[in-house]
Amino acid sequence: MKICMFGLLTCVLVLFLQHQGVETRHGHGSRLLKETFHPRYEETILSSLPYGNTSTIFNVLAFGAKGDGTTDDTKAFEAAWLAACKLEASTMIVPNGSVFLIKPISFSGRNCESNIIFQLDGKIIAPKRSGSWKSGLLQWLEFRKLNGITICGTGVIDGQGAGWWSKSSGTKPTAVRFYGSSNVTVTGITIQNSQQTHLKFDNCQSVQVFDVTISSPGDSPNTDGIHLQNSQDVTINSTRLACGDDCVSIQTGCSGINIHNVDCGPGHGISIGSLGKHNTKACVSNITVRDTMIHDTENGVRIKTWQGGYGSVQGVTFSNIQVSNVEIPIIIEEYYCDGGKCQNKGSSVDVSDISYQNIKGTYTKTPIRFACSESTPCTDVNLDTIQLQPVAAVVRGVQRKAAVVMGLQPDAAEPLLEQPGKEGWAGCVEQRLENAAGTGCSAG
To answer: What is the pLDDT of residue 166?
Structure first.
């Protein structure tokens, strides 16, 4: 956490010096750039070399990037990264006012120092045509095996993914992926129009994401906002997520996840899962989602598992969540499948110690759906202060109030809050049945 804070403070200092107008001349020709330096060198002008042993600032323009939106600048980014990663606490700058066309690239940390800052103030775009990509690619921009990596700034990463969305099959890349990294901070930037998932953390520890905007159309398929897998100690806050799939997707191997002050919608809500596909083990624990707005989505807060899997989901709290125009605000679905009939098998992921507190707002389909497994029933599921109203009833209430104001006779009063019976909530509001089978997951 200290490393993350170091990177963040350094990034703030860089932005402050830019605002003060510290100027330097870099690279070829006479292009004048606003540039920032480590405090020891803030008045230094390094015009003779694109980088040197004394500088910790590496601007991609100094390595030959054109920034015109049409020239392939991938090799310039690779060269700038290679130079920056040799020095601890260095900064690689993608400057404001330029658009950089970048093909798939890996910012690898195998031989890199720690605490590197990737300052993004310009715009990075992907090739539009999927035919210009190699087949089987899993990611576009990858940050791999780094310690203390910070991405900050006011810039944009645009996957230009519309050409991919019409493809019904085949591998589609993630826009930004962190793999095997620790003490990661992502702040300030915008990621939009991803080919598939926008931002993924895989096998990462100590991650902070805040003041980030993620955006793609609500009908763009499989464009998750943030995807977490095999990652621990992750905080996501003060972030706007609008996409065509889950705003946040939490997969197996995740624990210590804290999501708060997030605006989610459109999309499919905030999901744990799907878990246990193809009879696999899944372990998720200690998840908190609080103080969050979810609107114009298919789901609100959801746990989804496949029949035949095993393991556990435990220690999950959803609290202080406002929903608006959501099809189903609260869901536990242990018969999840992506097509066809979901079969009832002899095992499933154990779901226990789940708390829903102070969830309010409007729904368009049904307020709560709990479909727990017959073989492994949900246990210790608690609901407190759940106030969900059908959108139609809210509209009728507004109309009645308007009629009274206008001196008209309103229709007979109707309750604004539906209280469906047990059958209306998929036959399960709270189950406290003992599950004798072990989950195979250690507490975490």
So the answer is: 86
- Cα Rg of the chain (Å, integer): 25
Cβ of 82: how many Cβ atoms within 10 Å?
Answer: 16
Q: Among 19, 268, 278, 295, which one carries the catalytic annotation?
A: 268
Q: Which spans in 166-250 are helix H? A: none
* Catalytic-residue membership of 198: no
Q: Is residue 39 domain-shared with residue 65, that is, in the same domain? A: yes
- Candidates 76, 81, 43; CA nearest to 61 is 76
Residue 289: give the domain boundaries: 252-437
Q: How far apart are the first and last CA of the chain?
A: 19
- Are 276 and 300 members of one domain? yes
Domain final residue, candidates 214, 245, 276? 245
pLDDT of the residue at 406: 56
Q: Which of 207, 215, 213, 211 is nearest to 187 (CA)?
A: 211
Q: Are residues 230 and 115 in the same domain?
A: yes
* Joined tokens for residue 285: 């624990």
Residue pair 254/231 in contact (Cβ under 8 Å)? The answer is: yes
CB 251 within 8 A of CB 283: no
Longest dimension (CA), the chain: 83
**Three-class SS state of 238:** strand
| Residues in contact with 164: Cβ distance below 8 Å, sequence separation at least 6, in sequence order | 130, 172, 195, 196
Distance CA 391, CA 378 (A): 29
Q: φ and ψ at 297, to 5 degrees?
A: -125, 160
Distance of CA 59 to the CA centre of its chain: 28
Identify the CATH number of the domain in which residue 349 sits: 2.160.20.10
Residue 15, SS3 per DSSP? helix
Structure tokens at 211: 């003041």
**pLDDT at 129 (0 to 100):** 78
Question: Degrees (nearest 5) of the Cα angle 82, 85, 90?
Answer: 125
Give SS3 for 308. Answer: coil
Beta bridge partners of 117: 91, 150
Q: Catalogue the E-assigned strands of 276-400.
A: 281-295, 299-305, 310-326, 328-333, 350-363, 368-371, 379-390
- The full DSSP string for 68-105 is EEEEE-HHHHHHHHHHHTTSTT-EEEE-TT-EEE--SE
Q: Mean pLDDT of successive 10-residue segments in the chain (444 residues)?
A: 52 52 37 33 33 71 97 97 96 97 92 96 92 79 97 98 85 95 98 97 98 97 97 98 98 98 98 93 98 98 93 98 98 84 79 98 97 91 97 63 55 39 34 44 67
